[in-house]
Amino acid sequence: MRIGILTAGGDCPGLNAVIRSVVHRAVVGHGDEVIGFEDGFKGLLDGHFRPLDLNAVSGILARGGTILGSARLERDRLREAAENCEELARRYDIDALIPIGGEGTLTAARMLSDAGMPVVGVPKTIDNDISATDRTFGFDTAVGVATEAIDRLKTTAESHQRVMVVEVMGRHAGWIALESGMAGGAHGICLPERPFEVDDLVKMVEERFARGKKFAVICVAEGAHPAEGSMPYAKGAIDQYGHERFQGIGNRLAVELETRLGKEARPVILGHVQRGGTPTAYDRVLATRFGWHAVEAVHRGDFGRMTALRGTDIAMVPLADAVTQLKRVPVARMDEAESVF
Ligand code: F6P
């Protein structure tokens, strides 16, 4: 068989581990050939690809990013791929395509699959918000980075009697904020799933200071937002169109808390540092298992599906299930953390 593979959407620690695993299973296990398209679906459409043999994937298991490059999707080009998918499969002489990506990529994978391309998807996102799988690789790494940041911020916060507001990734779901906040012992956690009252955060910090703990760390997901009217002081800059502009909730919340508490507050935006660098052992193992099962699915002809972690097992689930809805943090998980506002 000849299998095509690509990585699309935002990168994520563990992508290289999937690529390596697919090549090992396909080449060693089945005697297949593998080609890798560069920069996601763009490479598929524009004919940018390279053969992937054992040497090509040697030494990449622990490397962050993706050796194939990645790009976000342009809708029109995606439609072009779906309309021409039979011709594309013929052009590259591939029997199957394994796209690795998040919600957008899996939606694209489903479109190609519906149009007749033999596709097996592999989910990825540091946000862990794909509902059809219990976990995505990259999440464990991101939580580790954010936890370390919270640990470090606590010591400097304490030295200066400050409030630190650390903003982590998670536009639509607050899994990274929840788990790094729990692991790092953040005093406040704010998630996109629940609008937070700034009054409650102010009260919490004041109570801490009153009992002699003269610092606080608040972990806020980038997609978290305050309850209506609960942040009256931190107004954004007015741009040339008269619109208020904020550089993220972390900056805005730090300004609001400093004003209301009369204590120094500092924002720390972790950003893409959470997505870079070497994957944890957990993410390498999950990514490797996904790659292995994707190749097995190709050989069974189990197309239109993606790999998923269900409990401790890897299952194949319909691509349609992957993209129906995002997996958000349920209230029960917020309750366990104690410090979600
Ligand atoms: O979806 C993964 C993610 O890391 C989000 O948490 C974040 O909002 C986004 O990607 C950042 O995207 P970009 O790399 O395009 O800035």
From TrEMBL:
Nuclease listed as a keyword:
no
PANTHER family on file: ATP-DEPENDENT 6-PHOSPHOFRUCTOKINASE 3, PHOSPHOFRUCTOKINASE
SUPFAM superfamilies, per this entry?
Phosphofructokinase
- Specify which residues bind Mg(2+) according to the UniProt entry for this protein: 103
Highest taxon of source = Bacteria
User: Do you know which InterPro entries this protein is assigned to?
Assistant: ATP_PFK, ATP_PFK_prok-type, Phosphofructokinase_CS, Phosphofructokinase_dom, Phosphofructokinase_III, PKF_sf
Which residues carry out catalysis?
Answer: 127 (proton acceptor)
> What are the recorded Gene Ontology BP terms?
canonical glycolysis; fructose 1,6-bisphosphate metabolic process; fructose 6-phosphate metabolic process
Q: Which sequence ranges form a coiled-coil region, renumbered to this chain?
A: 68-95
Supply the name of the protein. ATP-dependent 6-phosphofructokinase
Binding site residues for ATP:
10, 72-73, 102-105
| Lineage of producing organism | Bacteria, Bacillati, Actinomycetota, Actinomycetes, Kitasatosporales
